Amino acid sequence: MAAPLVECVPNFSEGRNRETLDALRAAITSVLGVRLLDVQADGSHNRSVFTLVAPPDAAAEAAFRSMRVATERIDLTKHTGQHPRMGATDVVPFVPVRDMTMDECVALARRLAERAATELAIPIYLYARAATRPERERLPDIRKGEFEGLRDRIGTDPAADPDLGPRHVHPSAGVTAIGARPFLVAFNIYLDTADVAVAKQIAQQIRTSSGGLPAVQASGFLVGGKAQVSMNLLDIDTTSPATVFAAVATRARERGVGIVKSEVVGLIPERAILGAGATYLKLSDATEHLLEAKIRSVEGPTLDGWLEELASATPVPGGGSAAALAGALAAALVAMVARLTTGRQAYAAVQQRVVAVRAEADALRAQLRRLVDDDAAAYARVSEAYRLPKGDAGRRRAVDQALVGAAQTPLQMARGAVRLLALAREIGAIGNQNAHSDANVAAALAGAALAGAVENVRVNVAALSDPGAGRALLEEAEALERDARAS
């Protein structure tokens, strides 16, 4: 039976600093069982939205680790952006996905809130379904005055006191709202005008609090030179994106303004898009005629899809990702042999060491699984740098920086593969002998991962305008390979 699954959508007050965004990604994906589905960073809003799914405890752990990174790296006293904000980690909602009730998500949110308040010294507001006070249910009501206003109010105005944590804002990380809610869709519509007053007027007309559409929050901003109606759709089954789009279009047309485009921030349930298309085409049974849905229903597991991508004519994913996957498979086998040994009387003398091997293998599996995606992302950055105009004075530097990054990722794989090779040999010697062949396969896969990783380091360093700039990376990779052969 499938495990319970929860969605978590932490929002961070950073949309420009790539190193911080990468650190947040690494913190989230470091937790075993977490799948990061989407990251959207907006420089104008200076905000990022991460969408992950995981079993409940893993989701809460990933959220906490990312909150810790945000607290360390994001300083709200220096933050500017279009989007209202009150915290480095601004909001962390949990959403039930599978075999989870809303009440269980509320309990999960409150556990995370208590931990963050205690360990990070951040004031926490419980909101939406997790709210303990009715005036805390709506996020805009909590966020009034933003960071600066709450900094002045907390500790002096009892109405602003947090639900948990200190009665003063964190000096750089501010405050955070943590809660539980149904699926929410962040939906923006760009108008063909720079007059932000038009967007603000339309937002006021359509939002619930002004007597407009039910389950809609809306504001107006100027983004990229265009007026934007920015909305949270709190219940797409009550008010769909198609309904909202039509309402905004009508009110814009009344003012002689057109619509340039719309966008979804984060993810959206497919029924919302299908519903919009069906409404426009006046189809009553659209879902019964979807080719891709029928194909998905007869396809094998997700791994088949990834292998199809690997076999396709596109360069991503490629050899680096395959090497990381080989390492992750090796780690899974090492952990399997360890688990088949745990609790067996015949191996009582090595139980403590077997448990340690299992824990290290699980950690390496999570790391190498993340590197499957990281390698593809690193290659994409190299390709992006090469697409800069050849006359651009910064092109060569951008390419070199991307190549160094693309060499660092497989170097991390190589380090993990060498350690896995040792663990596979060790568990093969001390572990359950009925699974000895599995340990041997793990060692072979770890060796393949190492060879593939070193080859990718070598290729990326060779492509540098000055290969000496990557010499240290290549020397470490080749030394790892030599040591592995000698052992």
Question: Can you walk through the features of this model?
Answer:
Helix content is about 50%, strand content about 15%. It is of the alpha+beta class. The chain folds into three domains: about 5-180, Formiminotransferase-cyclodeaminase, Chain B, domain 1 (2-Layer Sandwich); about 185-300, 2-Layer Sandwich (Alpha-Beta Plaits), CATH 3.30.70.670; about 315-485, Up-down Bundle (Four Helix Bundle (Hemerythrin (Met), subunit A)), CATH 1.20.120.680. A hairpin with a 4-residue loop joins β3 (about 35-40) and β4. It is globular, with a radius of gyration of 25 Å. The two termini are about 40 Å apart.
Overview in brief:
By secondary structure, the chain is of the alpha+beta class. The chain has 15 helices and eleven strands.
Write down the domain tally.
3
CATH class of the largest domain, anyone?
Answer: Alpha Beta
The CATH topology of the largest domain turns out to be: Formiminotransferase-cyclodeaminase, Chain B, domain 1
Spatial separation of the terminal alpha carbons? 42 Å
Largest sheet: 7 strands, mixed
Q: Quick one: CATH superfamily of the largest domain?
A: Formiminotransferase, N-terminal subdomain
* Class per helix and strand makeup: alpha+beta
The helix count comes to 15
Q: What shape does the CA trace take?
A: globular
Rounded Rg: 25 Å
Average pLDDT level = 90
Query: What is the count of β-strands?
Result: 11
List unreliable stretches of 5+ residues. none
**Second-tier CATH architecture of the largest domain:** 2-Layer Sandwich
Helicity, in percent? 40-55%
